[in-house]
TrEMBL record:
Membrane topology term: Multi-pass membrane protein
InterPro entries reported for this sequence: MCP_dom_sf, MCP_transmembrane, SLC25A3/Pic2/Mir1-like
UniProt-listed PROSITE patterns: SOLCAR
Similarity comment: Belongs to the mitochondrial carrier (TC 2.A.29) family.
Superkingdom assignment: Eukaryota
Subcellular location(s) of the protein: Mitochondrion inner membrane
Start-end of each Solcar repeat: 75-159, 172-256, 273-352
The UniProt record lists the keyword Transport: yes
UniProt KW Membrane keyword: yes
Pfam families the UniProt entry points to: Mito_carr
Name recorded for this polypeptide: Mitochondrial phosphate carrier protein 2, mitochondrial
Organism: Camelina sativa
This protein's UniProt keywords: Membrane, Mitochondrion, Mitochondrion inner membrane, Repeat, Transmembrane, Transmembrane helix, Transport
Length: 374
């Protein structure tokens, strides 16, 4: 029996569901008999999507929400896409104040020397409202990115596992995670890039724009549509290694936790415990993500803030050491917390959909299970 057999009951009155050998639309006498029998026995037989009446005509029936989502079905990938949209959009928007400080430290290190200095300067010049600058492009951009990132990752992971077969998928599982996450992120960043360009300028150039509504048209008027995508290549340079590290480290960390740390198998752990493992695996993955992607993060902030600037200009001004270290401690804290929270939200949505949490089994093992048993 699966750990998801204790799913919540439907909020729709049970007498609206279809029952075996009964139909929803009946004569008054038949309906009375059906409801009397149902409430007396209080037994609910598994419903069907439609029921045929005795004269051969189809009767409408409501399917129960308790039915499980079939693994790797279109509904499964849709659920993962929605979960990804929510987890990325919510978490990135929530840490907008930290993002404002980080971006300003990267762009103007002489003015914003450290976290304390950046915090005081922002309050002095813009007030507490300054810490919310750029929240709207952040919400839209990272919601779109999360939808593509997680949805396409789940699809790519299954696709590559099927190509190589169960034996090699299990043997080279980390390569499956890396290939799947890289494929997903390439598409996800195309969706993110325009909003990232607006976000950085709104956060680092006071007076440039109030937010998305006036910032987006201003960039288009001055630089054309190309101005919204000029940071795409550096964004790929930041996000693709970041995402590859994020998913591969998370999957392997969670599997290791269940094997070496947890006293019971994953299937016997409660949902809250499984979500706790997701947070721990996500936070550990976030630390590695922050370190490997930080130079490119500094580069993206510099290019989006400086019109006509090149990569060579960024390296010359920031220096190699500065690209690797400037704003890194804050970003480690920010990305660790962010990634841990993302995996909790993502897996919580999957659990609500009747799906298992992520990790704890190789791609080959999961691909062999056609559905989650009730």
């Amino acid at each position: 029996m699966s750990e998801f057999s204790d799913s919540s009951r439907s909020l729709i009155p049970s007498f609206l569901y279809s029952f075996a050998h009964h139909r929803l639309f009946q004569s008054p006498e038949e309906s009375a008999t059906t409801m009397k029998t149902h409430f007396k026995s209080r037994l609910l037989v598994s419903p069907t999507s439609s029921v045929s009446s005795s004269n051969g005509t189809a009767s409408f029936a409501i399917a129960t929400p308790n039915e499980k989502v079939e693994m790797y079905s279109p509904t499964y990938f849709a659920a993962c896409t929605v979960a990804g949209m929510l987890c990325c959009g919510i978490t990135h928007t929530a840490i907008t104040p930290l993002d404002v400080i980080k971006c300003n430290m990267q762009i103007d290190p002489l003015k914003y020397k450290n976290i304390t200095s950046a915090f005081k300067t922002t309050i002095k010049e813009q007030g507490f409202k300054g810490f919310t600058r750029g929240w709207s492009p952040t919400l839209l951009g990272y919601s779109a990115q999360g939808a593509f990132k997680y949805g396409l990752y789940e699809y790519s992971k299954k696709y590559y596992s099927d190509i190589v077969g169960p034996e090699y998928a299990a043997k080279y599982k980390t390569l499956i995670y890396l290939a799947g996450s890289a494929s997903a992120e390439i598409v996800a960043d195309v969706a993110l890039c325009p909003m990232e360009a607006v976000k950085v300028r709104v956060q680092t150039q006071p007076g440039f724009a109030r937010g998305l509504s006036d910032g987006l048209p201003k960039i288009i008027r001055s630089e054309g549509l190309r101005g919204l995508h000029k940071g795409l290549v550096p964004l790929w340079g930041r996000q693709i290694p970041y995402t590859m590290m994020k998913f591969a480290t998370f999957e392997n960390t969670v599997e290791l936790i269940y094997k070496k740390v947890m006293p019971t198998p994953k299937e016997e752990c409660s949902k809250p415990v499984q979500l706790g493992v997701s947070f721990a695996g996500g936070y550990i993955a976030g630390i590695f993500c922050a370190v490997i992607s930080h130079p490119a993060d500094n580069l993206v902030s510099f290019l989006n803030n400086s019109k006509g600037a090149t990569v060579a200009d960024a390296v010359k001004k920031l220096g190699l050491w500065g690209m690797f270290t400037r704003g890194l401690p804050l970003r480690i804290f920010m990305i660790g917390t962010l990634t841990g929270a993302q995996w909790v939200i993502y897996d919580a949505v999957k659990v609500l959909a009747g799906l298992p949490t992520t990790g704890g089994a190789s791609p080959a093992a999961t691909s062999l299970a056609p559905a989650v048993s009730a």
